[in-house]
């Protein structure tokens, strides 16, 4: 399976040949950065890696007095890799450890009141994110392609789940009588 950034870049190039600057400009849009933050340096590195794997091929073009630019197109090998990676991505679910998950794993190492305060701050940030995500979705619903609309909805639903989980965590942290527990205690 390809990296997430490789999937994004190959998917864009699949639609039509693009140069690295065009790809970077698309990826710098707030709608993309809110969902998948990345740097222009990582995009250029990904393009070089995809080219070295022969997933894309570049053609240098010069237009009048403008500087030369390299337009990249998807190769057959790149198309096959992209399709395979997208199919795997759509049909599978992979649990990934997050900083939040690791912090939850060790939450009882913190003072309970401090942990609850931090969870409340998280909840407020999530509610703000949800407001902004809803606004983006409702403002652009009729103007954007279905795939991007689905991405915006996916983001809203993920935030809603995070809000629900955080609210439940706050309630449990407030009511649990065994705060000082540790996973290490399972060792005996």
From TrEMBL:
Ranges for domain Transcription regulator PadR N-terminal: 9-82
Gene3D superfamilies: Winged helix-like DNA-binding domain superfamily/Winged helix DNA-binding domain
InterPro entries the record matches: Tscrpt_reg_PadR_N (IPR005149), WH-like_DNA-bd_sf (IPR036388), WH_DNA-bd_sf (IPR036390)
Pfam family, one: PadR
UniProt-listed SUPFAM superfamilies: Winged helix' DNA-binding domain
Name of this protein: Putative transcriptional regulator
Native source species: Clostridium pasteurianum BC1
